Amino acid sequence: MDRDKDLFWKDLFQKGLLCSLAVSLAMGLCGIAAAVDCQASSGLVQMQAAAKTELDISRGDIKIGASKISGTSPQGQQVTQSNRDGYHIVGETDTYSITVEEGVSTEILLENVNISLVDADACALKIEEASTGDVTVTLRGHNVLKSGSHCAGLEKSCNQTTCVRSGSDCSCGTLTIRCERYREEGHICDEDCGALLASGVNGGAGIGGGDGRKTDRIQIQGGRISASGGYGSAGIGGGYYCEGSNIWITGGEVSAVSGEGNLALGGVDGSEKNSVNGDCIVEAGSMGGVTVYRGIVLNGNEGKINGAVTVTKANAAGILKDKKLTREDGGRLILPAGVAWTVQNTLRVPELEAARSVSADQEREKEQEETEDQGSVSADQEETRLGQQGSPAAKGIYGQTLEQLDVTDQAIEGGVPGAWSWAEDEDPGKTYPIVDGTTSYTRVFTPEDPGKSPVRVEIVPEMSYLETNEKVTILSPKSPDGANGWYKGNVVLEAPDGYQAFHSRSVGWVEELVVADDGGSGDYEYYLREAGTNLTTDVKTIRLNIDSLPPIVDSVTVMHVDGGMRIRAKAKDDTSRTEQVSGTRHFYCLVQPESQIKTMGRKALIKNKATKDNAVGEFTYTDLEAGKNYQLFVVAADDAGNLSEVSVQTFMAQ
Predict the structure, then answer these.
(1) Of 24, 144, 184, 629, which residue is least crowded by CB atoms under 10 Å?
(2) Nearest to 281 by CA among 252, 301, 240, 257
C-alpha cells in the first residue's frame, strides 16, 4: 500500500499536476504521505522551473500579458500561450527586450540572460508603469540588464502619489528579486547564488524608476545584486531626481551606486518606508528614507553591523574582506567555521579555526587578551632577543598569502636549536593586501629547550606587484555616446580574461567596474588581480572623458548697432561635481516675430532651419523690422554635446 501511495504522488509530480501549488503545501504533502519521496526546497525550485515556459530573448522581444504572451522558445517556435507557473528566460541580445504588461502577476526565472541596450532608447526589462501586478524575478547564473537612455535597468515605475506616500493604500504591485535558494532554511547568499547586474542611463535607476519616475514596492530576498543609476537616479530606487519608497532588503549581497543628484538606495526627499532587515550585506554610499534593523551596511572600506547578522565564509573572504566593521547598539556577528574577528575589527579566515558564534562581549574580551599578549614581553624574552643575529625578512607579490611569501629567517646567537613560524595571532592564509609596504607581521622563534623563552620579531615584508600588460577595456557604451569622444553617463569597464578588477568604489574584486559619471575628464585608477593566484598589479590607469552635465546660459544681451541688432550670449559650465568638464563649444540662436513663434524644445530649436550656430556666442541680425517685437531663443552646447536649457526673452527691434 505504501509503495502504491509513493508511486501515486511521484506520478503527480512527474506530470506537473502539483507544480503550481504554493511552497507551504509542499510540507503538507510530506505529512499526507510519509512514504512520498519529498525533496528539499532546492528540488522544489527545480520542479517549478521545469513547469515554466522556456523563452529565448536572443530570438526576439518577449512581451508577457495576462491572457497571452509574445516570445520565441529556444528551439525557435513562436509562443503565445500564457503560463500561470511563469517563464524561464535565457539568451543574450543587444536588440530585444522583456516587457511585463500592466496588471500582470507572474514569475520570471532569468538564467544567464544578458540584455545590453545602451545604444538604444529601450528598457532591458520593464514592468509597465503603475502596474498592479506582482512580479517575481528569480536569478540563476550571471544576469545582465543594461538599458538605454531614460530607462532603468530593471524598470518598475510607480508615479501614483498615493502609492508613494502611503504604503497601505498603494495600488502598485510588488517586484521581488531573489536567488533560487532563498527558501532554504538558514540560507545566506554567497558566490554560488544567482547574480544580477542592472544599470540605467540618463535618468534611469539601476533597479526602479525610469527617467522622471518614482518607484514603490521592491523587495530583494536574495542574490548578488549590483545596480547603478544614470544621472540624477538612484542605484535602487527613484529615477531622475525622484523618490523611491517601500524598498525592502531582507537577504543577499546588494550594491547600489547612484548617478549625480540622487541617493544610492531609496531616493531624494520624499522617500520613505525603506528598510534593511536580514542576513544581508548592503553597499550603499548614501540612502534615503531607509531604516536599518538587521544587516551589514558598507560604505567604502567601512561598515556597520546592525542586529545579529550571520555571514558565510565566502563573504568573510570576499566582500567583507579587509573591511573595518563597527557595531551599532546590539550589533554582533555570527561567524561560520574558519572565520575569526581581529583586533582591527576585520574578518579573517584561518584554515583550521573552529566554528563559533561570537557575541559583542566575547569579541571585546578576545581583543583585550590579544592586546595584552602582544604587549607583554618577559625579561627572558628580551634577553634572548638581544642575542638574535639579524632579523627575519620576507619578499612577495601583492595577493600572496603569508605562507606564500619568501621568508628568510635569521639564526639565534649561540646556535640555539628551534624553529621559526608565524605568530599564533597571524593567519598564514591571509592575503597580503594592496598597501605601500607598511603592514607588519610577527615571526616567532620557538626554542627546542622548553626552558628558553620564545622570540617574537615584527617584520615588514618587501612587496612588489604583478607585472602584466593586460588592462581593462570599455564594455559599455560600446563607443562614446557624446560628441568629440566624450561619454555622457556611467562607463562600464571589463577586466581581461583571467583577471578581476578593483577601484575605490567597487565592492570587492569584480569582472566589471562601473565608473560613475561624476569624474569628468582624467585618468581613472584601478588594480588587476589574476584569478587563481590572486597576484595583484600596481595601480593602472585608463583615460576617460565623462561629462553628463549641460552648460548654463549665464546671460543674453540684445544691443542696437548700426544696421541691425546684435545678440551676445555667455555661458558657464556646470562644475558642481567636477572641474574636469568639456567646456562650452557652440551657441545656437533663433529670432522670430513674437506673433509667429511657438514654444520650442532645445533639440527642435537647434535643428530649426532659421537657427544660427556660432562658437563665440555673438550674432548680428540686419533684417529685423524696427518697432516690431521679436522672441529670442538661445541654447548653449558643450564639447560633449550636452545642451543647456533654452533661454527665452522678448525684445523690440530698433
Answers:
(1) 24
(2) 252
